[in-house]
Amino acid sequence: MTSDAWAEALGYSSGEGNLPNPGVLARDIRGAVLEAGQIHRHQIIRGLAEAYEPFSPPTEELRRVVNEVLSSLVLAGDLVQLSSAAGMAFSATPPRLVDWGSDEVVILGASALEPSSVSEVVRRLPKTGYDIADAPPLVTLQEELGPPGWRLRHVELGGADTIEGPPALFSRAVDLARGGDRLALAGADQIRILSGRGSYFGRHDSEQPEGRWRVIGLDGAFPAVRRSGFRWEQCIVHIEERRATYWDVPDLDLWRWAVIGYTQTLPQPTYIADGQTGVLQFHVPVPVQIRRALSIAGKPMKAWSWSVGAKMPGIVGMLLGEAQVN
């Protein structure tokens, strides 16, 4: 069988670098997961390498894009990632359609529904493009996402459930930092604090702090990073009368929510939604829940930027405890 005939039989199409298109990879990964019920990462990579062998994709590059697509499928909620003695494994989530007020719905989980085009990782269908009788349950995007992530993290830290927004989470983190370990201000080059303003977030690990990052100095409470060995650890710093204490944030996503809470107290926008172009641009690192919403109902543009429909800025604003459309 020629490679063209094999491509037609597989529904295969390639893109840059002779690699399969992400939509093709996503379809084939979902098919492997549905057939196996649960399948390990190395089995997926080996099986796809064998299936695509007639097209000679570069082995290491294929492994890289398979891992990227797997991450995207987990983020969207198509697959769930499981740890096992044999390594990372994947299984499909329950089938459902997700509606966010657009003229499309997204297919997630163990559903055999497939769009006619496989250009995207996430499966989208027109609302009139499927048989309701054969379709999985329909849920709203808000139901799919659950409560705003900052509320759940606030409760995890021992705070009461509240509707006060991410600043309540930052306030709780500051309380923990106030009672935390001492921090030597003499090692100011070993810590960077997020005390600046502006739309450019910047890098904390550049030779000189850039964007909103500053060296430690003034009194106050700030999201920060501190050097620990060869790494930078996310933390919250409290400084009062030259006495500094800190609390190491348990995970990066919690720190992102704390950054949003702090930014809202300034006050400063965490994102801008352009109603004319439909582009939503963030000025802060984006928590997983928000990225998940945008992976379902938006299309990535550049870093921290998505193309979205008219309803999405309001949904994102609800998750962030704010609403702004410019």
Report what the structure shows.
- The protein has 326 residues and is of the alpha+beta class.
- The chain folds into four domains: 3-92, Orthogonal Bundle (Arc Repressor Mutant, subunit A), CATH 1.10.10.10; 96-145; 149-265, no CATH class; 271-320, no CATH class.
- Helix content is 34%, strand content 24%.
- The protein is built from ten helices and 17 strands.
- The strands form four sheets. The protein has a six-stranded antiparallel sheet with strand order 8-13-12-11-9-10, covered by helices on one side. A four-stranded mixed sheet has the order 6-5-4-7. A four-stranded antiparallel sheet has the order 14-15-17-16.
- β2 (79-84) and β3 form a beta hairpin.
- It is globular.
- The chain starts with a helix and ends in a 6-residue tail after the last helix.
Can you give me a brief rundown of this structure?
With 326 residues, the chain is an alpha+beta fold. The protein has helices at 3-10, 22-36, 41-51, 59-76, 141-145, 149-156, 166-178, 252-265, 288-297, 312-320; strands at residues 39-40, 79-84, 87-92, 96-99, 104-108, 123-126, 138-140, 181-183, 191-193, 214-215, 220-228, 231-240, 243-248, 271-274, 279-282, 298-300, 305-308. The protein is globular, with a radius of gyration of 23 Å.
